[in-house]
Amino acid sequence: MKINVRIFYTEGCDHTPPTIDLVKNTASKMGIDIDLETIKVQNQEQAESQKFLGSPTVQVNGIDVDPSTRSVNAFGFM
Fold this sequence. Notes:
Layout: E1 3-9, H1 16-30, E2 34-40, H2 44-49, E3 57-60, E4 63-64
Parallel strand pairs: 1-2
Antiparallel strand pairs: 1-3, 3-4
């Protein structure tokens, strides 16, 4: 069974490439098969619909990996 991992980012975010590498390396080391999707957030509407909190945002099966952000509703494009 593959796990769906989505990484949302904004253009020019320096943290995105190392985050992608970290996700891939962690999944590999743990023997987890992932379906990795990277999504560029380009506007406020997209940020709200994707629950984008900042660049990069990592979601596993639609849930943010940071538990402290799961109750936040202040999504936005920065």
